[in-house]
Amino acid sequence: MGFDVLSIVQLVGGLALFIYGMTTMGKGLERAAGSKLEKTLEKMTGNVFKALLMGLVVTMVIQSSSATTVMVVGFVNAGIMTLKQSVGVILGANIGTTITAQILRLDSGGAMGESLLMQLLKPRNLAYLVVLAGVIIMMLAKKRRTRDIADIFSGFGILFIGMSVMESAVAPLADLPQFASLFAAISNPVLGVLVGAGVTAIIQSSSASVGILQALSTTGAVTWSAAVPIILGQNIGTCITAFLSSLGGSKNARRTAMVHFYFNLIGSIVFLVAIYAIQYTVTFPFWDLPIDKGGIANFHTLFNVLGTLLFLPFTGLLVKLAEWSVPSGEVQEDPLAKLEPRFLTTPSLALEQAQRCIAEMGEVAKRNFSLATEPLFDSVPLQDDLFRDQESFLDRAEVEIARYLTNMHNIRSVDQRRQTAEMMHALSDFEKIGDYAQNIFGRVEEFRQSELRFSPAAMQELHTMCEAVSEALDLTVEGYVSRSVSVARTVEPLEEIIDTLKERLKSQHIERLGRNECTMQTGIPFLDIVHDLEKIGDHCSNIAIYTIQLCEGAAEFDTHAYAKQQYKDTPQFTDKLRFYQQKYMTQLDRVEHMA
What we know:
Largest sheet: none
Number of strands: 0
Oligomer: single chain
């Protein structure tokens, strides 16, 4: 039977089974390892050798260097791993990915006349029993961890079944002279590299493309001279996944993809030059002989191991090449780039990134508060464009962070659910602080356009209240970022003072209106600004109480009940309240005395 359309269908189907099995097994292993896998990868990158080891182990577990590299691109894009730290992981990932080819070589044909037991132990035959075991485990499984184990068994078996189908499909090619001529042509190193890179880029898996080459090698038509450049090209082609993953990411994410590319590109060039220099001077006795699965697996491993040893002393060079390829430019990085979609399946990482973004919201809210209030007291220009840009960021951040939190998967612990709820509350309050700052900015803008002024007494009163609110905002952000209960507890007594200031300022301004010391044109904006300042204090109090409740393990987030019943009667609250009364109310008393 010759190689026909049915053979092509079987080849494609076998490839599909191969990729499905490899993916299923990898995901099962990754889930079985849990989120600790990614957390460990994040933490063990301070030393290049530790990073290399972690990259190797993680890739061996999930059976994909592309997946590991994409994970690293995500870490760098999110700002929790530096470009320099990523190099070691990428080097290790390139070695770890060779494990698939080494597993597949176990299925090399044995001698005729083997016993039934020995034949059953061959991976291509054992695969069916392994799949059966996986299906039985899956049918009986009640826990998620058990289903993960079932996926590992099923994926491993399907991987070899797919390989066996591909080998059977390409077997008729051994009798076709055109097939032998094709691989003779691919012996051209440049063409071989391009073929290997192209096929791998299309299927986005070097393990799968190496598996295809191993299947083709069973025909006996693939020689060492044809296989070597193809394998080198396959290592280059696998970089496409990292490139696609880095699109739309930060400049360091794109640089990480370039590190992966330069490692494989430069390593392939060095290998090609060295191998062909030796071949044309000394000659390899096996160069024109057929290569088998073991030879392909060994050369694939040899290239990545020697390439890693070659680059270990020059990791800094890879970083510089990547930085040169992706220059910094003047484009400001988006703080919301930390919301990495790749982390959504790992709640601990996703929550950590969301918390950083909400902290950035707090910093932006502080800056906008300053931009809104400083022009009240100084003749500084209104920075309208900067203010609008930052307010737009707050609005966008509220939507994107909320969407990110609601899209998280695998939230199993009560603590993670509580943290998610706290963040949803906090990001809303930070956005509202920005809205009230926008109200103040708009009124200051109208005031300047109308060339109106507050009375000296009104200016002093507003200045006192702005100082109190600014301090409350500083403490709120500090407590939120550091998760400090002691800092967060100082916000509520200060918010009490802000409420008192509001009432005092309202009554005193009404008295000035009655004495004709102020006009209605300035009186209404004054009261509006006082109202906005008091509302900012309220939202600061909310965020601080969320922080306290989260850190102390409260069952629910209840700002009103917590503030009134659990803290206001404590000696610490009384002491802080007295401190802030002395600090701000005495300033107000001096203003009244001067008036």
